[in-house]
Amino acid sequence: MCGIIGYTGKEEVKEILLDALESLEYRGYDSAGIAVSDQEAEEIQIFKCAGRVSDLKRVCADEEIHAKCGIGHTRWATHGGVSNVNAHPHQVGRVTVVHNGIIENYKELAAEYRLNGQLKSETDSEVAAAVLNALYNGNPRETIYQAVSRLQGTFALVILFEDFPGRIFSIRNVSPIVATQSEEGCMLASDVTALCRFTNRYFVVPEYCLLELSEDGIALSDMQGKAVEPEYMEVNWGLNSSDKGGYPFYMEKEIMEQPEAIQNTIQNRIVDGMPDFTEDGVPDSLFVNCERVCVVACGTAMHAGLIAQSLVKSILNMHMDVELASEYMYTDPVVDEKTLVIAISQSGETIDTLEALKYARKQGARSLAIINVKGSSIARASEYVLYTDAGPEMAVASTKAYTTQLALIYLIVAKMAQVRGVWKEKQVKEYIAELKRVPSAIEKVLERRKEIHLIAKNILEAKDLFMIGRGLDYSLLLEGSLKLKEVSYIHSEAYASGELKHGPIALITNHTPVVAVVTQTRIMQKEISNIKEVQSRGARVILFIKGELLQSLRQEIEIFTLPNLRDEFMVIPASVALQLMAYYVSSDKGFDVDKPRNLAKVVTVE
Ligand code: F6R
């Protein structure tokens, strides 16, 4: 959480910082600020405000800012409310800081260093700035190492010292910082999205290494002062792939990109019609030798895990746990060296997932991560990684990351069925051939998005809404419901439809829209009965149904027919339809679809 940017080089820094902050805004949008180091004036100027980067732009608009070095921050509030004074950067004496993470012992430090008279904000971050200032002896390296040895918690700190104009220092523990050097200058950021418009090469700053950016370039050193060689990697996202591409919101653009994203994710992993992870370096033995499989993930990524669980159970006849990563360590998980832990994460930075993975590995578990962002913390903490080739996902609500995670899950399940001898080659090939049809099935849903827009108009006024289905339909509805509630603020709950009569049906009235999804042939009749139960209690039902199952239904329900695929794969087109529905509800209500209230894209606090 929180977006950080730093630049020093040949160009005027103001626009660089403001543009980069805009591209990082999905990490937090409670307040924004920049600090620029103006060599001529020999002082550090700070501009900051509560609100969005667009508000900060207004604050900076009339200011004559001529500087070629600066840092910036966009905040997701943890300690201290949303206010101008709590916005970063924080300046104490000769030290100016932006921070991502949480300094857990900030109260103790404030007491120990008698900082209270100096602090203006309620933030833990300002305490870090004040500790650095208290310890400052004219030597940034010594000061920074001394200060961070006192900090408990997670941090990515980016620091300007007034007497080192044109230089930016940074150090981190857990919270990410990436950096790069291009013709224009040196940059650092909390994630690669902000660097993409300059270069596609970057490196992840190792924990507790000191990064120094100056006009001489980048210097990276360890705690002993020994130079460390940056390990550059390349991101294959186009330099403009984080633009909105003509769509009003990223969410719409990202929904529309799904056929291509899935195609990119699967194409190099299918060889002669069979799943193949050779290029990823993932050995077949990983899937043969495990006795237990467990997914750790949060939110949408956890919902992808639930689909994996159903497939593993039905195809491999194997038990699989899906654990909320935030609960994992605290619920005595059964995990040992025969366990394969699969961590799923778009950002690769979700701290709960990272900690759960580290915990499982400590118990001896083998590990595989399904990640979208190359080189991210979870990718580096896992033995093996499969990257979803979704490109940057900028909207806070996850769409293409989810469906590309599913695409990889289908491949993993097919690989497991193959190497564990559950399926013959022919069966694997038939299944993979169906997976290859998924992008065109999504296209068919996207082509008919106007129909979904009309459906969405009918639930704009809803206060509460239920989503019902069975089996895989229930699992995908958990995600559909999350999508709707986070972007439209409508209270939505997904229920296994057979469970309704055990309590929740008490909430059904003629003011409660019920979204039902029916794609699973073998339980279809039961799903239809459950739909009739809510209809007879007055509910208006909106039905998303696999086309070939339609004939046995009366037509008084609002129906969207989904393209036909094998039942296992219906999850993806059905999910895309629900994503569109959530999107249209939110945009028709006039909300900022990409930045729902209280949320942030990258969740680096526990
Ligand atoms: C919802 C959403 C979140 C994330 C969750 C995990 O649309 O995006 O629920 O899925 O915060 O994030 P990652 O996948 O980055 O670990």
Q: Could you explain how this protein is built, in words?
A:
- By secondary structure, the chain is α/β, with parallel strands linked by helices.
- The protein has 3 domains: 232 residues, Glutamine Phosphoribosylpyrophosphate, subunit 1, domain 1, CATH 3.60.20; 192 residues, Glucose-6-phosphate isomerase like protein, domain 1 (Rossmann fold, 3-Layer(aba) Sandwich), CATH 3.40.50.10490; 150 residues, Rossmann fold (3-Layer(aba) Sandwich), CATH 3.40.50.10490.
- It contains 19 helices and 26 strands.
- The strands form 5 sheets. Strands 3-2-4-1-10-9-11-14 form an 8-stranded antiparallel β-sheet, with helices on one face.
- The protein is globular.
- The mean pLDDT is 94.
Put simply, the count of helices is: 19
Uncertain parts: none
Proportion of β residues?
Answer: 15-25%
Morphology = globular
> Which secondary-structure class do the elements indicate?
alpha/beta
Query: Could you state the CATH homologous superfamily of the largest domain?
Result: Aminohydrolase, N-terminal nucleophile (Ntn) domain
The first-to-last residue Cα distance is 11 Å
Structural key phrases:
606 residues; alpha/beta; Glutamine Phosphoribosylpyrophosphate, subunit 1, domain 1; Rossmann fold; 3 domains; 8-stranded antiparallel β-sheet; 6-stranded antiparallel β-sheet; 19 helices; globular; binds fructose -6-phosphate
Question: What is the topology?
Answer:
Blueprint: E1 3-9, H1 13-24, E2 31-38, E3 43-50, H2 53-61, E4 69-75, E5 90-92, E6 95-103, H3 106-112, H4 124-135, H5 140-148, E7 153-161, E8 168-173, E9 178-182, E10 185-189, E11 201-204, E12 210-214, E13 217-221, E14 232-234, H6 250-256, H7 258-267, E15 270-271, E16 274-275, H8 285-288, E17 292-297, H9 299-316, E18 320-324, H10 325-328, E19 339-345, H11 351-362, E20 366-371, H12 377-381, E21 384-387, H13 400-419, H14 425-436, H15 438-447, H16 449-457, E22 464-469, H17 472-488, E23 491-496, E24 513-518, H18 524-535, E25 540-546, E26 558-562, H19 571-588
Parallel strand pairs: 17-18, 17-19, 19-20, 20-21, 22-23, 22-24, 24-25, 25-26
Antiparallel strand pairs: 1-4, 1-10, 2-3, 2-4, 5-6, 6-7, 7-8, 8-12, 9-10, 9-11, 11-14, 12-13, 15-16
Helix pairs in contact: 3-4, 4-5, 7-13, 7-15, 9-13, 9-17, 13-14, 15-19, 16-19, 17-19
The structure holds fructose -6-phosphate.
